[in-house]
Amino acid sequence: MGKAIGLGGVFIHLHGDSKELFSWYEEHLGLDFSAYGTGFLEGEQLLTITFKRDDSDNMPYLNFRVDDIEEIIERLKKEKIHISSDVEEYSYGKFARFVDPFGNHIELWEADHEAYKKLVEEEIAKYKKDKTPMI
Fold first, then answer.
1. pLDDT at 133
2. Strand 82-90 to 93-99 pairing
3. pTM to 2 decimal places
4. How confident is the model at residue 94 (pLDDT cuts 50, 70, 90)?
5. C-beta of residue 99 within 8 angstroms of C-beta of residue 107
6. What is the reported pLDDT for 79?
């Protein structure tokens, strides 16, 4: 049987002019853009897809994996970007949140690849056993 093997795209609406959004994220997170948006051509892809989310205004719509979260957060602080959650560390990585100049809430994640893969494998096995959604 065929199965999904990855994510082809995430299509969301962020506040702000597209050209300004692309420029800001290119400058501050090093994303490369085409006329259609951005993607990732290098590195391992780790991804969570949530089928239900909190509708509060400060719930992130995007989570970007990063290679040095402290450096990025410090740079954003120096540039007076609102940091809504300083770096928090968990067994599977570090997280922080900020609000971009357009009012979009964004989360950053510096992953511990092995710990995250182990956590996901354990969560999959647990769900297969009891079939109880957590969301």
1. 62
2. antiparallel
3. 0.75
4. very high
5. no
6. 94
C-beta of residue 83 within 8 angstroms of C-beta of residue 67: no
Structural domains in the chain?
48-130 (3.30.720.110)
Closest CA to 68 of 103, 20, 116, 30: 30
Q: What mean pLDDT comes out for the span 32-51?
A: 70
Angle of CA points 82, 86, 92, to nearest 5°: 135
Phi, psi (degrees; rounded to nearest 5) at 107: -115, 140
As a whole number of angstroms, the distance between CA 53 and CA 71 comes to 29
Residue owning tokens 């182990």: 118
For the cut 70, the answer to whether the pLDDT of residue 20 exceeds it is yes
Question: Cα separation of 100 and 120, whole Å?
Answer: 30
Tell me which residue has tokens 């079939």. 131
> Could you tell me the two tokens for 74?
């410090």
* Pair 22, 33: CB distance under 8 Å: yes
CA distance 30 to 35: 16
Inter-residue contact 46 to 113 (CB < 8 Å): yes
User: For residues 72 and 95, what is the distance between their CA atoms, to the nearest angstrom?
Assistant: 11
